[in-house]
Amino acid sequence: MDRIKSGRIYIISIALALLIVESFFALQVTFVLDDFKLHYVVIPTLLGISIGFLIGKTQVLKQQLLQKKRLFHAIADEAREFSYYRRLDGTYEYVSPAVKSLTGFERDDFYAQQNFFSTLVIDEDRALWERHVEGMQLTDSHESIHFRIINKEGKVIWVDHNCSAVYEDGEKVGIRSVNTDITKRKEDEAAISILATYDPLTDLPNRSTILQKMEELIEDETPFAILFLDLNRFKIINDSLGHNTGDLILIQVAKQLKMCLKEKHFVGRLGGDEFLVLLEGTIDKEEVEPTAQTLFGRIGHDYSVDDYTFYISASIGVAFYPGDSRDRQELLACADKAMYSAKNVSSTGIVYYRELMRDNRYDQVLLEKELRSALDAKELSVHLQPKVDVRDEKIVSYEALLRWNNRGTMMAPMQFLPMAEETGLIKEITRFVIDEVFAVARRWHEAGLLNKISINISMIDFMSDRLIEYIIERLEHHHVKAQWFELEMTETIFLENHEKIVKKIDTLIEMGFKIALDDFGTGYSSLAYLTKFPIDTLKIDKVFIDNLGIDHKKNYVLLNAIVGIAMELELDLVIEGVETSEQIAILKEMGCHVVQGHYFYRAMEIEAVEQLAIQTARKS
Fold it and tell me: Is residue 428 within 8 Å of 467, Cβ to Cβ?
């Protein structure tokens, strides 16, 4: 209430009081008193002013109280949140109108029964509610809890309950509370939780939930077995008939898995067509085998989708905790290896990792699988090894060498390239190397650092009809010239159709490439190659110089003869595998100028080579 209005109330109250008091005394003076004295006027006037002030004060306080009450109701009554004030004995002194939208009950229902709100709390949350009520009776702090009630229509409602104590003259007299319906929020949280922990297609636990379950059992040191399942031929169906068909098959497979599992079995979808079954408390093959055979049999049958019928089977790999590993990721990898072996090697469809460890066949199977994904995982990289002129020890060119960072282990080419050639993966790998080297050459050329770079081409790649077409395409894409590169080929290439080989080499030479015969002397070496094929460079394999210091005379004669022939044919020479100063001295004596090996440089990452080239350019 503003001061003007308060002042007006005081003036009116005093004026009315003076009017009444003065009138009363005026009557006394007129009819009762015999003579008039001054104090007959002063005393009634003071009395009237005092009475008027007290009446005005009362009216002002009453108006202020009414205003606050109206303000309170304007806020509390119109709020969406249901609020109330109850005494410590449970009697409700105020209940907001929003109570009906939250609970379905009227305000009078609360006024008529002490602690009426408590009667609505569901049984599962009653203990939480009672601890809260008891705590609020004893504490002075604000508290907030979430619990569920059953409204008048029988629907379960989630409530966000915030309350604090109310005091009068320093003494706690009651509790005030604000309650909000958070049912929708809780439903959304539950839906998000389901999305985060369950696969939406099959309604099975997802990969993160599976890993969490494994971690819980590992923390409790509870033994268990995992069965890694992968569907056979699923990719063919999925790619040919579409993902909708594939999804319908996955749903049917998930149902089969659920139907044949017991209480302590746990099944989830790892992703794609991979599933995992966890058998808690299982420690050996005898315990797992019945379940594995049941799963194998239940999955392996005809599946009908629309007008199609497909036979789907599964490959299963089994690993045990703690027998095979105590780490969940490593354990999963063990089961994956066993599954992959079951898919490619085993005739039973079920392989146990501990048995697989006694069978070396899985090494190649695993290596092939990992190499297939290495390109996508960016695990393959190109390193460069300099070739050095021993006369001034300057770098004259580089050879591109492939490296594979296989889960932290750097693998040399001979550890995986033979298998890549056997499986045909070498074609994709060679294209990766070509692309990387062309990109490096373009960058170096722009920086004025260009030296010739050699690229190895396998027989399988060279015989491909698309190789030259791909090289032309990538030269144009990277804006590089063939003259900047040398193509290294092994002797095995020249065992094929001579006419076809010569035609391809001639095409590459016409484009501007230099051709090198790599690893000369290790295979079906024939000096005839040096005259029949248009070769620019002869790379002498390290086998000829490994024992120069031990069996000097015999190795010296052989190497010297090859060097002499190459020089007579005007071929460039590169000696591979040079590692000692003694070898360098002998090669200088023979007139071999360009060497490659650890004596000068090992193969280095491209960034390190670039730094070396920059430093060398600055010195020169």
Answer: no
